[in-house]
Amino acid sequence: MHRPLVITEDQDLLDDLLRVAAAAGVEIDVAHAPAHARPYWQRAPLVVVGADSADALAAAGPPPRQGVLLVTRASDDPAVWRRCVAVGAKAVLELPEAERRLVDEFAEASEPVIRAGETVCVIGGSGGAGASVLAASLALTGARRGLRTLLVDADPLGGGIDVILGQEHAIGARWPDIVEREGRVSFTALQAALPTMGELTVLSWHRGESPPIPPEAMRAVLEAAHRGCDLIVVDLPRHVGPASGEALSRAVSTLLLVPADVRGVLSASQLLIDVSRHTSALGVVVRAGALLPEVITHSLGVPCVGVLEDQRGLADVLNRGDAPPLGDRTPLGRFCADFLATLETR
């Protein structure tokens, strides 16, 4: 993949642009004179021209192209707009005020093919319902079907969803390393930082003190994943805070996993009060038990999207550190395959 091109002889400006590019997680090509830029001019996804080189570039007469920006650090330069027109730039960005926009421009230019991934949230109707296992299973099933998938653990008190996958020792960033991110983030850079196994990338927690997820960080992660993934699965805590609200508002489907007993349904009905403020795309997954699925869905006023039978030996498998078994004959495997097939036909 080709890299953004920077054209400038101003070393101080170049230092600023290198820092901004690093913040976007991208590498750039640098031309210190218009003649050096010629091989990169047409193929670079973005061209950033320093105001110091604009006149020389215009004099060289490069062919017109889209995606050119003029960057300056001089707020009182009366010639800046003339130079902008001369080089065919779409905008003038003044540093340092425009650094955040320039980070976004670099990240967008360096994105992989747009995938328009869909977000699915999973939340337990009561404690211990098994929502994290369901979320991990959905993500793993999607990845095995060839979908580029991001699994997001949004519950700092859940023990780490990477443990369910047997990947708690995988090298890579966790939420505490990501929480300061905001604005546009390159999914390529995000994927490179996180533990990735084939088509599955995981954002989980480390062991220790866990700071809350700022909504801006959740927004940045999900927007990056929407551009770079086919499927995003978010395991939500039962307390719906600002970060959870960000995820719910983006979800095409939110699965509420409800044990089929009286306390499970009562607990789920309380949770629905908060969840319904952020999304109407809700479906109940019933964990088989004493109550019939139709009784549960009537009580909650939410349609049933499936019933999960007990899976023999699942707890033993997870305690050994193995990923959930998701064969066609397992309840989890059948549900996940059927749900994702339904999702793909929407």
UniProtKB/TrEMBL annotation:
Residues making up the signal peptide according to the UniProt record: none
Domain of life: Bacteria
Domain Rv3660c-like CheY-like N-terminal: 7-112
SUPFAM superfamilies given in the database record: P-loop containing nucleoside triphosphate hydrolases
NCBIfam families: CpaE_hom_Actino (TIGR03815)
The protein, known as: Septum site-determining protein Ssd
Organismal lineage: Bacteria, Bacillati, Actinomycetota, Actinomycetes, Streptosporangiales
